[in-house]
Fold each of these.
Amino acid sequence: MARATSEAVPAGRYVSQLRNLRGRTLPNLSPGWGFVLELAKWNDHSKSLQCVATTSTILGIQSPWYVERVELKLEAGEVHVHLEHENVEWQCSECGNKCALYDHQPERQWRHLDTCQYRTILHARPPRSNCSEHGPRQVRLEWAEPGSRFTMLMQAMAIEWLKHASQKAVGKQLRLSWDEIHGIMERAVSRGLKRRQAEPVARLGIDEKSTRRGQRYLTLVNDLDRSRVLYVSEDREQRSLDGFWATLTPEQLNSIQAVALDMWDAYLNSLRAHLPDADSKIVFDKFHIAQHLGEAVDEVRRKENKDLYRIGDKQLKETRFKWLKNPKNMTEKQKNSFGPLR
Ligand SMILES: [Zn+2]
């Protein structure tokens, strides 16, 4: 498609032409339209209006891309914006080297923010760069994420609205199907995960949670600095935790300073197998240390009780809770009866 070179039509006159178009009343176009119309050409056959608009801030289109033509489909309530590009070198999406154009992919469409209640659709043929190292690669398009059918501005608006309203309400307002809304949300989540993947995780907490009265276990890994769950898996075996380490980048693995966990061999084994210098980073939290100390004290008591029993001394019998009680919390009477046992 050649760039139109017809004489410039003042934007005001163009807008009044639009307004009078076949007796239809159009919404107030001039300010809300968003981009300044430079040239216009009326095409009677296709019942559509073709025009060339300037590079526009509202579209976020920058050189080498430009708006080649705008098509207004009144019946469908749609504005179709066709994009073309200058003859330039393209960055390889793999290595970033500047390369010659290889070819174009078939034309694609992206739903953009509405223009005065008109659904606005961008059209372009994505170029492929010809990298000497990586071969033909589709170049990054500045207005959309790879594979998305929406421009980034459209996605951003949907996400913003989804913070305040239900999927159904946002879908209705933006005229998006449930699948489309869902796709936008999924993309946002995966972007969030990617960002999260790049963040350092200095302090981790590893926990087991029992489900259904202790019959099944889950292993949870938490980012203690940001109070969020990073990883969940079934059981509390070594392999339950082994899967977590692969989700970290080498930088993240090195960023780990401390891991709080209970003294559970399966977890310790996983930690020692995957985390460099694991033993210096392991922190047993207070609750679990208290639990283990309690068990150790009771074990000693039981053993001594057994030995004393053998020689007929029953003074340690049924004293378990005296040994486990914090002396600060003892009554005078308890202190007096416990004293001689020590
Ligand atoms: Zn390359």
Amino acid sequence: MKGETSWVSHCLSNIHREIEFDILSEVTDEGSKEDAAVSLDLILPDELLERILSYLPIASIFRAGSVCKRWHEIVSSRRFIWNLSQVQLQKPWYFMFTSSDEPVGFAFDPIFRKWYGIELPYIETSNWFIASSCGLVCFMDNDSRSQLYSCNPITKECKRLLEPPGLKFPDYSALAISVNRVSHNYSISVVKSKQVPGDFFQWDLSVHIYDSETMMWATPLTEVLTGWRGGDESVICDGVLYFLIYSTGGCASENRHGLITYNLCNRSSHGLLMRSFTPAPCSLTCGRLMNIKEKLIMVGGIGKQDRSDIIKGIGIWALEGKGWQEIARMPHKFFQGFGEFDDVFASSGTGDLIYIQSYGSPYLLVFYVNQKHWRWAQKCPVTKRFPLQLFTGFCFEPRLEIVP
Ligand SMILES: *[C@@H]1O[C@H](CO)[C@@H](O)[C@H](O)[C@H]1NC(C)=O
Ligand SMILES: *[C@@H]1O[C@H](CO)[C@@H](O)[C@H](O)[C@H]1NC(C)=O
Ligand SMILES: *[C@@H]1O[C@H](CO)[C@@H](O)[C@H](O)[C@H]1NC(C)=O
Ligand SMILES: *[C@@H]1O[C@H](CO)[C@@H](O)[C@H](O)[C@H]1NC(C)=O
């Protein structure tokens, strides 16, 4: 099965063209597949075949498209692609950047446990801000923070969005996206944070929301925080925007991180942002927020009491009401398996999977939330070439029907 990965990688980088234009290419293929496929072909009416194919994982759907002309026509049809959205069996993939300067890397498919070479549209380097939801990935540049795209990395469809309003050159920005699974319209949020000039303890914070229906930004909230600043972690779950804030050391607080909750439906909380404050569950070094089936989950490094830059483990918590409940802790053998583990790491999750990787190595650990099961991903097909080479990544759902 050696050829598989390269076939898929070839096809994935050409999916859009495949679907739209490449109807003729597999006519030559027909003669060689006259075994099992043919008898199925004869028995099954189109609708049934369509239904069966729609239950396949994305990568198999592309392979099925090369079986014969009839199958190809089915998997290329708009109706089939639309119907796929009704069958939600796809598992989220993890894209790992293998270079800090270029947007190159591989995507891990947890169903086949394989890595595919796919190209990401538009993004220029791995330090851009990235958020994803239901097949769409949003990228924002990390210099001017004015270039913003929403893309489907599978079909390569991409759209440039208007620049978010508000403060220019914020010190911190947090990006999140939320796609409505029924209507496919989406919201993007940017939380900007900038120090008030000459005052170390005061930070301007503003929340900006983009609506794909109106294609406009709104700024429902601006506030000044004292002793706390925003950061670059945020996520939207079930209509609520969550973001982490970080102590600037003014008040002698033992919690260096906290969570702010902002309801996007009724958007009315002037002067009240800190009322929604939920302290981090322990001394965290690196909190990462994610949407797991519309529930807020946080992954974080558990700091040593005396040396907060060294972590002794990684925990996973779910927000239950106003408090955190620990749902898992990375077993020590996996933690050790990363080799040197920095106090910062990449982690991203959706659906029922959470991916964790250290910046220092191309190893990827998967946590299956429902089964509470940890498992290494297949080794990424890259090797570390120099000691300071960094790896990072994000997860997204592979979907054909979703359009930016
Ligand atoms: C696809 O969707 C259409 C419209 O909802 C439906 O009538 C049809 O049965 C679906 N086909 C399959 C194969 O699921
Ligand atoms: C943006 O760039 C800064 C400075 O290089 C870096 O510290 C930060 O982590 C970057 N943000 C993201 C999201 O990569
Ligand atoms: C998305 O579309 C649905 C129905 O079409 C609508 O009720 C909803 O308000 C829209 N949401 C956003 C965020 O635009
Ligand atoms: C916003 O709506 C939620 C329920 O959807 C409610 O719990 C909350 O109190 C509301 N907030 C404000 C400020 O009205």
